[in-house]
Amino acid sequence: MPSYVSLVISSTAFGLKSEKKYPLDLTLGKFKEKLVLVTGCEPSTMKLELLDDSERHVAFLVDDFKTLGELGVKDGYHVLASDPTVEAGHYDKLLGQDSSVEFKLTEEEYAQREDTVLAWKKRNKIGKFKELDPEEARKAEEKRLAVEAAEKALLEKMNIGDRCEVRIPQQPTKRGEIMFLGPTKFKEGQWVGVKYDEPLGRNDGSIDGVRYFECLPKYGAFVKPAYVEVGDFPELGIDDLDEI
Asked: Could you say which DSSP state residue 222 is in?
């Protein structure tokens, strides 16, 4: 399986199509962030449909923690982005674009153009370019620092190699060993890397091509500190199972 796939990207909000290469180990969440520039859709409201090279429906992409490879994305496939909060063709109307045009641009070339969604968002201070009110910005920064401090305090009570139990709301309780503690490149904040006793995880200790620890595929996961409890949690034996 190739490490990269070439995909056709299009959007209901912005008629232009582009063709770009993406790594198969890129998570869907990170993939959505990259698509903002070429689709005009925000990650929080973006809906993605995967079409094969014959334009037949394959699947809707919904799990932000799974990689493109795990989601069945293949070379030559088409990803169609939509956003229920944005009118179809919205950016074409604003920019006067011909939606029948297809193009291939590097990210640097795209960033330099003045007739793109990115340029329009910069001019109108939309999305990540929005200028917060000074008071709102101060409160947001205070909240971020408070969360960061609380997470660091929890990490200080943990050590690499500790046994732990992970309790995430609406998910089964899982046990494992702590393999990583600290910040990551895939998302801000503090994270606990856990190697589960069973293949109940989402990765092999790496995300977006960056390795944080070693484990078998599906045994690794990154969890917020608040959901991790350190203690004497031995591996569950057959006598501990509620169902066989």
From this structure: E
Predicted confidence (pLDDT) at residue 93 exceeds the cutoff of 50:
no
In a domain, 238, yes or no: no
Q: In this structure, what token pair is assigned to residue 140?
A: 């947001």
| Listed residue (25, 16, 144) closest to 89, CA to CA | 16
Q: What is the model's pTM?
A: 0.50
Buried b / exposed e over 116-150, threshold 16 CB at 10 Å, is bbbebbeeeeeeeeeeeeeeeeeeeeeeeeeeeee
206 versus 94: the higher-pLDDT residue is 206
**What CATH code is carried by the domain that includes residue 215?**
2.30.30.190
- Which residues have CB under 8 Å from 204's CB, separation 6+? 214, 215, 216, 217, 218, 219, 220
